[in-house]
Each structure stands twice: as C-alpha cells, then as structure tokens.
Design goal:
Blueprint lengths: L8 E5 L4 H12 L3 E6 L15 H13 L4 E5 L5 H15 L4 E4 L14 H29 L3 E6 L12 H20 L5 E8 L9 H10 L20 H12 L10 E4 L7
Parallel strand pairs: 1-2, 1-4, 2-3, 4-5, 5-6, 6-7
Bound molecules: nicotinamide-adenine-dinucleotide.
Length: about 270
C-alpha cells in the first residue's frame, strides 16, 4: 500500500508513551519522519499518576525506527521555550521541512474549582494551555518557512467542549485549546496550513486513574452524569490506536477540506 505521508515530517509532543507514542508510530507507518519530545519526568508534585520515563521515549524511538523512518527525539518540557525552539531548529536542519504538528502533551488533575491550589491551577494551565501555545509558537514559523502547507492537530478533550465537574482547570485549559485552534485556522489559512482539534473521551492510558475518579464520584455523586459510558462501547476505554486513526486522517490530504473543526473521538459519548 502507498504511504500517504511519504516525504513529510511530523512533530509530536508527549510522545514517550500512550497516545503520543501511538501517533508517532502510526504517522511513521504512513511514511513521515518524526520529531518527538516528552518531559520524561513528573511535571509537577501536584500530579499523582505515574510519569513517563526516558526509557519510554527510547521505546518510541525504537518503534518508529522499526517502521523504517528516521526520528529525532529529545527530553523537553513544553513550558521551556528555548528548548522547544532548539528542537524545532535541529529537526528542520536534519529533515529539511516540517509538515505536521500533533500538539499532544498534557496533564490531568482533579479538584473542585474553588478548592484548587495555585500549584494545581498553574500546572494544568501552564502545560496544557501555555505549553501548547509555546509549542505552536515554536513550530509554526518553521512550517510557514518550509512552504509546503501542512496540518496541525491540537489534542484537546471532551473537556474542551463540555462541563467536567471535578476538573474545571483541565476543562479551562482544553477549552482554551479549542479557541487557539479556531483562531489559528483563520490565521494560517493563507499558508495552506490546516488546524483542527480532536476531543478524545476515555482513552486507556496512565493518565486515567479510575481510583481518583471513583473517589470524586463517591464524594459528589451528581458529577457521575458528566462522565457517561460510550454508546458504542458500554464498558472500558478506547485504545490510543483508535485515536491515531483520526490523527493520521487529519494529518493527511484526505481531510484537506477541514480546518477549524472540533472532532470528537468519543464513540458518541458527547451526545448524552
Ligand atoms: N486518556 C484520556 O482519556 C484522554 C482524553 C482526552 C484527552 N486526553 C489528552 O490526550 C493527551 C495525551 O494524554 P494520554 O492520555 O496519552 O496520557 P499520558 O499521561 O500517558 O501522556 C501524556 C504525555 O505527555 C507528556 N507530558 C506531560 N507534560 C509534559 C510537558 N510539560 N512537556 C512535555 N511532555 C509532557 C507526559 O510525560 C506523557 O508522556 C493529553 O493532552 C490529554 O490531556 C486524554
């Protein structure tokens, strides 16, 4: 089968594991060379779930190379503007172009809005919203400069489209990404760069801690209605690979008429 992204270069953040790794491997399978970053450490003491490691990012490198593609991977925090710009510069020097950006790195925390600490708020907004903006700011000039158009996929969440009681700071960050996506779709139109956001719901990754959610629901039973089961999959979570199906499609020419759209990846859950 012809590789639909042959000759293109894709930059993926949060690529050490889970969805980011899956997107890197699937884009490589379609023929793209990969620039990958991950913090590979606990981004803040306010986060309770297991952090990604340098070994995780090495495994992503191995998997991309096993697809026969080249990869430049580096431990970078998306809050660090200088490190982001250096990685983009080094990536463009090595691969000579940049066509696709998947802004996927993100963190999740829990707490009612008026009970959040400054640290909880600053971590989630600082990474998901400000860090993603810094990623976009670092990558977009290189995409414009390359002159080949391109596709940016911003990883928001169902929480970027609807209320999610128990994580209002996360929802605020993901709604913010929806706004950035739609603004950029207009600003980048003249450069043939498309910008769309995806809004996954319940993907099986280390970020999802069923115990933390159960604790919130036990304390606040009314919140459970905001987290319905998926109509097409009553039990469990979807896989990262299922989300990658959508990312690969948005990255490629088959979605060429789409820009400034919000694509739910939710098996119907947002319709409840
Ligand atoms: N899992 C879900 O159900 C779900 C649903 C909707 C949206 N999302 C979003 O999908 C994206 C991927 O999450 P995931 O589910 O694969 O979880 P994950 O925790 O396994 O992956 C997130 C990755 O981002 C990296 N990261 C975090 N902060 C970073 C920083 N400051 N700089 C660089 N890298 C950083 C982490 O190390 C990790 O490897 C996130 O943006 C998340 O908000 C997840």
């Amino acid at each position: 089968m012809a590789e639909s992204l042959q000759g293109r270069v894709a930059f993926i953040t949060g690529a050490a594991r889970a969805q980011g790794r899956s997107h890197a491997v699937r884009l490589a399978r379609e023929g793209a060379d990969i620039i990958a970053l991950d913090i590979c450490a606990r981004a803040s003491d306010t986060l309770t779930y297991t952090p990604a490691t340098p070994e995780d990012l090495n495994e992503t490198v191995r998997l991309v190379e096993a697809e026969g593609r080249k990869v430049l991977a580096r431990q970078v925090d998306i809050r660090d503007d200088a490190a982001l710009r250096q990685l983009v510069a080094d990536g463009v020097e090595q691969f000579r172009r940049l066509d696709i950006l998947v802004a996927n790195a993100g963190v999740l925390g829990w707490g009612r809005v008026w009970e959040l600490t400054d640290e909880q708020w600053d971590t989630v907004i600082g990474i998901n919203l400000t860090g993603t903006w810094r990623t976009l700011r670092a990558a977009i000039p290189a995409m414009i400069e390359a002159g080949n158009g391109g596709s940016i996929v911003v990883v928001s969440s169902s929480a970027g489209l609807k209320a999610t009681p128990g994580n209002g700071h996360y929802a605020a960050s993901k709604f913010g990404l929806t706004a950035l996506t739609n603004t950029l779709a207009i600003e980048l139109g003249e450069y043939d760069i498309r910008v769309n956001s995806i809004h996954p719901y319940s993907v099986d990754t280390p970020m999802i801690e069923p115990e933390a959610m159960m604790e919130i629901f036990a304390k606040h039973p009314r919140f459970v209605h905001s987290f319905p089961p998926m109509p097409m999959q009553y039990k469990g979570f979807m896989t990262a690979d299922e989300v990658s199906d959508v990312v690969v499609w948005l990255a490629g020419d088959g979605s060429g008429t789409l820009s400034g759209t919000q694509i739910p990846v939710d098996k119907g859950a947002l319709k409840y």
